[in-house]
BRCT domain-containing protein
Amino acid sequence: MALTKMSQKRNLPSWITSRDPPQPESKKKPKDADEHNIRNAPESSSTTMDFSKLLEGVVFVLSGFVNPERSTLRSQALSMGATYQPDWNSDSTLLICAFPNTPKFRQVESNSGTIVSKDWIAECYMQKKLVDIEQYLLHAGKPWRKTSVPQDPTIREPFSVTEVKKWARDDLTETISWLESQEEKPAPGEIKRIAAEGVLTCLQDAIDSLEQKKDVGSVTELWSFVPRVVKELGKMESSSKTENSTASKDQLCKQAKSWKKIYEAELAQKGEEEEAKSRRTSGVASGYDSDETVEMTEEEIEHAYRNYAISLSSASSASSLSCRRTMGASLPPKEANLFKLIVKSYETKQYKKGLKAADAILKKFPSHGETLSMKGLTLNCMDRKTEAYELVRLGVKNDIKSHVCWHVYGLLYRSDREYREAIKCYRNALRIDPDNLEILRDLSLLQAQMRDLSGFVETRQQLLTLKPNHRMNWIGFAVSQHLNANASKAVEILEAFEGTLEDDYPPENELCEHTEMIMYKVSLLEESGAFGKALEELHKKEPKIVDKLSYKEQEAYLLWKLGRPAEASKLYRVLLSMNPDNYRYYEGLQKCLGLYSESGQYSSDRIEKLNALYQSLSEQYTRSSAVKRIPLDFLQDERFKEAVAKYIKPLLTKGVPSLFSDLCSLYDHPRKPDIMEQLVVEMEHSIRTTGSYPGSDVKEPPSTLLWTLFFLAQHYDKRGQYDVALGKIDEAIAHTPTVIDLYSVKSRIMKHAGDLTAAAALADEARCMDLADRYINSECVKRMLQADQVTSAEKTAVLFTKEGDQLNSLHDMQCMYDLASGDSYFRQGDLGRALKRFLAVEKHYSDISEDQFDFHSYCLRKMTLRSYVGMLKFEDRLHSFPYFHKAAIRAIRCYLKLHDTPKSTAEEDEMSKLAPAQKKKMKKQKKAEARAKKARIFSEAETKIEESTACGVSKSGKRNVKPVDPDPHGEKLIQVEDPMAEASKYLRLLQKHSPNSLETHLLSFEVNMRKEKFLLAFQAVKQLLKLDAENPDSHRSLVKFFLKTGSTSSPTTEAEKLRCSVLEAERPSISQLQNKSLVEANKEFLGRHEDSLVHRAAYAEMLCLLDPSKKTEAIKLIEDSTNKVVQQTNGALGVAREWKLKDCIAVHKLLETVFLDSEAASRWKSRCAEYFPFSTHFEGKRSSVMPDSVYNSSLKSNENGDTPNHPMGQTELNDGQLEAFKSLTMFGVVTTPNVYTVFLKFYEEWHRESKGGRTSAAFSDLIFAERASGIDFKPFVYTVHMKDMQAWQLSYFFVVSISGQADATALHKPTTSENSSALMASAVAPLVCEKFSRNPRTEIKQGKQQHMAAHSMKGIAYPMQLKVRNAIHNLQQGPNHQTENMSFSSSNSHPLGQ
């Protein structure tokens, strides 16, 4: 095709084959690079030589410009004869400045230089003459042109510009004629472009030959058709043989470049004349790039329309669609304008307007493919997908050679996440228009999304070849190579890009982006193992790096990798001085000093050195918590006890709820939990008796005892001593009943103890104490779902959603309640709803994976390269996270249950009577029917969705109403024809992303055994034995497999014989079965784990499976198991036993469902009820299922619709205490005896005139006040509906009602001076906690705010609550008692601590 060559020494030109990769430009001078890209700004002057001397003698400097504008200005000035310098010096004559007050502007101004705006250069270049400079001057100074300009006397012009222009036109015509005469010729629409590019390529070859000091004749020998301009150059070369060769070739090269400019301008002018409209040639060359354009004017839209046809920015994908040939070119002018309107309406999201224009065109031209495609794309944005696909398919059918139709088809598929189909459409579009930038860019995004890395590299390389002056293309090509595991190639690309930059790059507004590119390059060098080169690059580019913290971190790491630990340790110490709480810096310092261990095990010598290191660091960073916490991981015995005491005491005094979570990792060490228990118990005893820590005379505040009890409750919960833990947490609640964390922890303890109903009730009580806390709300929902209270959980969960379809809103917010909800439905036997919830989790993860799509272009544009690569690696391992792992496992178990309990039908009974061949035929027929049914169901659901959303159409035509779920209860999910096929889908995901999980291979065994794929099942058994051969489930799978395969009939087919031979060959490799029968292997397994309950249960189950007559022996073996007591530290409270609640429940279910022995199950239940008295499963005597349980009565009350009640943890005062509280004298005024009457009176008066408020905050205030006072206000709460009560008004009203110092009914009125003084006088305890308060109203609000902030921060001691307690105590002691530095010898001295 096109021009052919006589020799194969040179690669085919880029306009015949795919373009060669761009060569690094770092070896070229900037001027050469500009001349190479001069096609982007061709000249069209009849006096080219005069034009090239317009600015001769001008030495210019640029300031304040960025690429591509900077490159364009420099090219224009150079083409007019000026000389460029990057920085101002004595030879410079002119500064071209973007705006005043740049650093260079001030420098030139102080040196009396001349400064001009960019508009002067642009006008001179456009008008092809020297424009008056006066009106463009920013500062007038020294002459802007050198007076003496040396001339080259050898330069002569043998031909005029007019003659050269005529050559260009003749060469184009003759080249077209030659191409048309060839057997293999280009398409008619492309032949002129190919001819023009061929002429220019041949001329460029001649220039390259002259630059290499070679003869032009070597070029003419390679081409079958040689343009006139190359022939003339050859003649001139021949005539100059007698002259100096070097000088002649330099002159010829300069002459050739000058002629090339004329050729480029003339060929571009020729193309413009044929299009019948003139436009600037620089615009033709540069084209339209949507990545560089934010908004487009009407003129720009027309320009882009004529050049690349269309730019479609899809609302769903924010992408653009462009084409080189004019869209709607075959339409008459009127319809063509209407087509432009469709495009514009689509871009501005005026879909109805676009549809109207499309219909107008289709009335006259019903088969116009591009119009049909655009109409379909518009309908797709209006959620009318069925019509959209039909129209786009019809458009492609009518105009299959239109790359626009294929591009629209790809966008349609992409909007539905059908990425593979979209890629096919893009590739079809590129076959028609291979150099379309927009399609290539869209294709690269999809390739990155689908991780088609080789294709991603290829597409990014093509983009860079087509547009090498765009930074994003260089960076994208480098990133593609990096993702394709070629970091060294990515470094080469970045170095080539840096070679195209100026010395003064980057400007100030691009420093951050340039820093990121440098750091990314360093990370690439590090990844490729070139640590020395990475460090050298880091030091070399230090002045241009603005992120000094990352610089120091990277430098320290590289020094350590290079074996220079002394230098690295100094840097890590500098970093620690900047942030002494960064654990990574301590780890790096330990590595540099040779004191780090991955396993956490240290020798005594290393422990001494580490201890000395952290002692010195703790003296240096006294306020750092990390320097005190890290030594707890390696210290032992007495040193550990001393260090942990120093760490714990300040945090208990301060009241940090997260202290136990911080120390929880220490429970993996053998002796450290005992030491901590002994230490904290001693602290508790000392605080109770002396009010201070052991060995200290400093009195601790009352809250210290509270947080000590709080810590101990969590400690005993962790060790399984639930009765002791509940005793501690109850004591803490009695001490200070207003701390919400106490109820949350008690709820957690009850859950671990097995009473899920009580746990849900306590979580709900904690929620009611602060209704504005979303975290507590989520905890409450989780507890309710665990207790199978799904309806209550859903009502609670939607409290933080907007009005409308609240459950769908929860799903859209990805609140992740689905797993707990699905578990609850699974326990209740509702497999449809359970599957619905588990598959919703998979949908969440798919959405998270889809969310990365928009970042493929954004991160390259914003240069966040390291974060982008990290995000892609995170997405690659997304499905390996535990939450998805659990959801997939549960979904597979649902499908297994569906398979094990199929619904028998008459059709299946008939199938069982058929011959095997007929069965196979019937199965194929049923599969085809199932596919047709599935398609029909999908179509019906889509129709319903469209009908349901018909009423929610906005003015633009976009449907705003969310579609209705066609299967809200999952009924269609359980009607699946082949549950094992569905289970296999999720099993493959688990095998890919969680190959080291025991449960993955256990499920693989279960699925493949049911599918009778024994070799795959055996593979799963081998993986189980490899991961954990002593696990009971591994043992079960091993015995079941060989029992099943051993009991099958003798093999008949070749496949069965092959399977048997494989199993016989593999069996000796299994150590558990070497020279042993299954019975012997089972008995040996028991011998190794005779004291373990779960292992004994596994042995008993397999014993019964191998020999059903030994069922009684197996049951007796389980019942003879002993629950041994775990050894405790001296002085420890309670008894801890080995058996876990979940293991005992599993054994109980085994006796019920596998052994089918109800009497044995009943005996086991009675026995476990003694070990787990709080367990509802075993109906323990202290569980909520007991008739006398407060939770049982509460649950019944809720079911009957009565008021909910959560008495656990409440501190109700007895009659004597209540009277004592009511008789407190405050400023000589006795409190009102009938509080409820005052409350009701106030509410009725206030509610009449109020116009709204915050219900949840008001209720939260009332609960807060109730806890602070110890008075039960529930009768008031359940009588009065406070839907309009505001938080501060309720808090304030409560104070006034208790104190009786002001008229309660006046509080809602506007504040006056008289009313204000009344309010001031009424501000007393409990919420305003100082006797002589100067600003009571503010302190009331502050009290509530501090309470809320303290809970959300989970790290302070609730100062206002403590002041409440202290104030009440002071009032009991008398008016002279002081509030400061109070302490109680015991909790009994406090009215609320009993």
Notes: DSSP finds 65 helices and seven strands in the chain. The mean pLDDT is 76. The two ends are 98 Å apart (CA to CA). The first strand starts at residue 59 and ends at 63.
